[in-house]
Amino acid sequence: MGKVIVGAAVIGAAAVCAAAALIVRHRVRNSNPCVKSANILKELEEKCATPASKLRQIADAMTVEMHAGLASEGGSKLKMLITYVDNLPTGDEEGVFYALDLGGTNFRVLRVQLSGKSVIEYKEFAEVSIPPHLMVGTPDALFDYIAAELAKFIADESEKFHLPPGRQRELGFTFSFPVLQLSIDSGTLIRWTKGFSINDMIGKDVVAELTKAMDRQGVDMRVSALVNDTVGTLAGGKYDNKDVAIAVILGTGSNAAYVERAQAIPKWHGPHPKSGEMVINMEWGNFKSSHLPLTEYDNTLDVESLNPGEQIFEKMIAGMYLGELLRRVLYRMAEEAALFGDTVPPKLKTQFILRTPEMSAMHHDTSPDLKVVGEKLKDILGIPDTPLSTRKTVVEICNIIATRGARLAAAGILGILKKTGRESFRDGEIPNTVIAMDGGLYEHYIEYRNCLENTLNELVGENFAKHIKLILSNDGSGIGAALLAASHSQYI
Ligand code: ADP
Ligand code: MG
């Protein structure tokens, strides 16, 4: 009996709160809009705050999850996938090698001629878009299309590239979807992402499917390495700079890979690698921690996404989502504080209408009247003639969201530095650590990139910062795959 009464009291209280909220929201529209939007902005800033102390907690949580994911399969939200890459390219690789990079709406094919002295003598590539119907068709249709493009690419080969007589062409396959790797040159698809949905592929060996298609299309080529883009970037980076030990992708999505000691991977039961090391694909986008500064905007974005509850870290830091977070904040300001006048601009209701490149363009607007911001609001959202104060508010929101994302990405990197023990060296013993970065977000969103680098320096301290370098490894993933085909060549 008592319980029922308590329950009723709670429901009653909730109803009163909801009614109060309605009244507040209604009233607000009639109160001073500037004050109200300033309040929403202040609240956003507070909720998104990432002081160094919080970032350290997040880095520690990342380290804990890394340990758990390495201890046992399914031990953590971090998959910590074993890549079977235990020897990264050394620079001694020689000859012509190919790569195929598939992981979005375009795929790239490329070939490199390697000198054997850490030099890529020649490089050629072609980029081909995937017709949308093939993203949701059959495996044969997709792989036949790709194999046919490979055949054309080989037919176009210039004389600079030398395949020694009697040798088969070798390919590194960058396949950036979740794969359960079975060996360096085989792995089964766990699930499609990024708009792909092809029946009869889950659980199948992607290399076997590509190989069958190459046979059908008359392409005589062997897949010598199957990797994802982080692993390719790590290999490509390492070829240029021996101190590369970590790769981070910040593009549409986000992920990281790094070199781990074999003894630190309890779940690995295979033969001990000669190098004593193994590359781990973290799949860090799926990281989650109670320390993450999540807001109402993050929560609704997640609930309404195609993969609710998954990829929470990615949804706070990666290019697919930053613009959408901005839209959600603007929507609330339009609704509750009449930021854009009496009515909410209809286009502001469309999910993903504000893309991160547009957000970046507004954030970087240095003109005195924020001309770019005005144009974007007009062109994308159909809001003409915004006052300067409104444009300033938009830039501030961009700054809060991008800053939080960049600082969290830096905390993730600190987590890897801690896990690999690099953060605990004493002066004089600190190893140089180079981090290979790739992805359109890192490459083009300068404020984000600068903030990430400054934050990492702030977190590791002055002494260690001198030994850390982030390099843009543009297209590293494709070249890296070709290099891995070389270092795992059937002729070695
Ligand atoms: P993918 O991650 O799909 O393999 P990219 O590495 O090229 O491809 O990254 C593309 C992503 O980078 C876009 O989805 C976008 O979020 C982000 N991006 C591209 N250009 C910019 C830009 N100018 N400013 C900010 N973000 C950008
Ligand atoms: Mg990519």
TrEMBL record:
A single BP term in Gene Ontology: glucose metabolic process
Pfam families according to UniProt: Hexokinase_1, Hexokinase_2
Keyword flag Nucleotide-binding: yes
MF terms (GO), sorted A to Z: ATP binding; D-glucose binding; fructokinase activity; glucokinase activity
Pathway: Carbohydrate metabolism; hexose metabolism; Carbohydrate degradation; glycolysis; D-glyceraldehyde 3-phosphate and glycerone phosphate from D-glucose: step 1/4
Keyword Metal-binding tagged: no
InterPro entries linked: ATPase_NBD, Hexokinase, Hexokinase_BS, Hexokinase_C, Hexokinase_N
EC assignment: 2.7.1.-
Key words of the record: ATP-binding, Glycolysis, Kinase, Nucleotide-binding, Transferase
Domain Hexokinase N-terminal residues, every copy: 41-239
Domain of life: Eukaryota
Gene Ontology terms: cellular component: cytosol; mitochondrion
Record-annotated Hexokinase C-terminal domain positions: 246-486
Record family assignment: Belongs to the hexokinase family.
Protein name: Phosphotransferase
Organism (species): Mikania micrantha (bitter vine)
